[in-house]
Amino acid sequence: VQLQASGGGLVQTGGSLRLSCAASRNILSIGVMAWYRQAPGKERELVASVTAVGSTNYADPVKGRFTISRDVAKNTMYLQMNSLKFEDAGVYHCNRVGPRKYTWGQGTQVTVSS
């Protein structure tokens, strides 16, 4: 399975971005999917996840600001990011949750400026 993240860019604090993750197969067969981010010098962390039945979960720092969703017909997962902060910057990746992850792609860079 290939997962391609896109939609990153440069945004001012308080701004919004919408990330997309296109899968090469039916996303319902992938299981729990998630967005991860990695800031410079830090470990990759899980930001938000969505199960096959649509249940969502968010890391505390992004609750109320980020929304994870998916379009099954398009085999695409999204991350709507609002009220962006400096600490939201990093490379965002999509992958499944659990030990059997797919090969990590390049991700998409999110840069937050003042």
Care to describe what's here?
With 114 residues, this protein is mainly β. The chain has strands at residues 3-6, 9-12, 17-23, 33-38, 45-50, 56-58, 66-71, 76-81, 90-96, 108-113. The protein has a six-stranded mixed beta sheet, with no helix packed on it. Strands 1-3-8-7 form a four-stranded antiparallel beta sheet, with no helix packed on it. Strand 4 and strand 5 (45-50) form a beta hairpin.
Radius of gyration: 13 Å
- What overall geometry do the principal axes of the alpha carbons give? globular
- Summing up helix and strand content along with how strands pair, one would put the structural category as mainly beta
Residues in β-strands, percent:
over 45%
Largest sheet: 6 strands, mixed
For this entry, give a set of tags.
114 residues; mainly beta; six-stranded mixed beta sheet; four-stranded antiparallel beta sheet; globular
Itemize the secondary structure elements and their pairings.
Layout (H helix, E strand, L loop, with lengths): L2 E4 L2 E4 L4 E7 L9 E6 L6 E6 L5 E3 L7 E6 L4 E6 L8 E7 L11 E6 L1
